Amino acid sequence: TQLLEQSPQFLSIQEGENLTVYCNSSSVFSSLQWYRQEPGEGPVLLVTVVTGGEVKKLKRLTFQFGDARKDSSLHITAAQPGDTGLYLCAGDDTGNQFYFGTGTSLTVIP
Amino acid sequence: KAGVTQTPRYLIKTRGQQVTLSCSPISGHRSVSWYQQTPGQGLQFLFEYFSETQRNKGNFPGRFSGRQFSNSRSEMNVSTLELGDSALYLCASSFQGQETQYFGPGTRLLVL
To answer: What pairs with residue B10 in β-bridges?
Structure first.
């Protein structure tokens, strides 16, 4: 079983603060994806990273894939209430199966 | 393009009953994966279908089964429902299975 551990599990911050969410595994993945899920809805893809060391920016969100392709981080600058949700990382092992992380529930307080 | 659709959105069943959930993938997508999401276990992979064949299976009992039709629509069935089967069931589609997955809104199943 390929396990993806996310930390922290819960995060509650004030609007305007910065935060980082981590996704770690002992397994190597060919690609890693980050999703955000809002209550009652399915996860929505934010980004896919495929190259070790890759950094992608999406407005205030910065995603990094570890050099060894075993870990990833998501950094949010100046968080806004609209960033509230469950953040999930998922690794692709090229076996037609995605392994999802344990999730980080983020609440941004106005 | 229309997104992934799932029906029904909400379902209430009692223990021992069976249930069938439906998923229509994005047009042109041939891979459909099913996941179970619960607060305690997170998102867990059930199975993946590609061109009407089950290509991959997660670690769930045989009460959970699925199928895919020639138009790529997929159904999953849970027989002899247990209280622990209460969850959000999500399906995701992709073109061939190894690329970006697009999720539907899910079916929330409550077993009483």
So the answer is: B108
Q: From CA A65, how far away is CA A36, in angstroms rounded?
A: 17
For chains A and B, CB pairs below 8 A equal 56
Given a cut of 80, whether residue A1 has pLDDT beyond it is no
Question: By CA distance, what is A36's nearest residue in B?
Answer: B103
DSSP A101: B
Asked if B48's CB is within 8 angstroms of A97's CB, the reply is yes
Closest residue in B to A100 (Cα–Cα)? B43
Provide the b/e sequence for B23-61 (b: ≥16 CB within 10 Å). bbbbeebbbbbbbbbeeeebbbbbbbbbeeeebbebebe
The C-alpha angle with vertex B87 and arms to B82 and B89, in degrees rounded to 5, equals: 115
Q: Considering only CB atoms, which chain B residues are within 8 Å of A99? A: 45
From the list B19, B14, B51, the residue with the least C-alpha distance to B36 is: B19
- Count the Cβ atoms, other than its own, within 10 Å of residue A10: 9
A49-94 pLDDT per residue, tens = 999 999 999 999 999 999 999 999 999 999 999 999 999 999 887 7
pLDDT above 70 for B1: no
- Token readout for B92 is 């995701």
Question: Which pair of structure tokens corresponds to residue B88?
Answer: 């959000």
Q: Which two tokens stand for residue A20?
A: 């980082």
Residue A86: alpha-carbon gap to chain centroid: 9
Q: Does A87 touch chain B (CB under 8 A)?
A: no
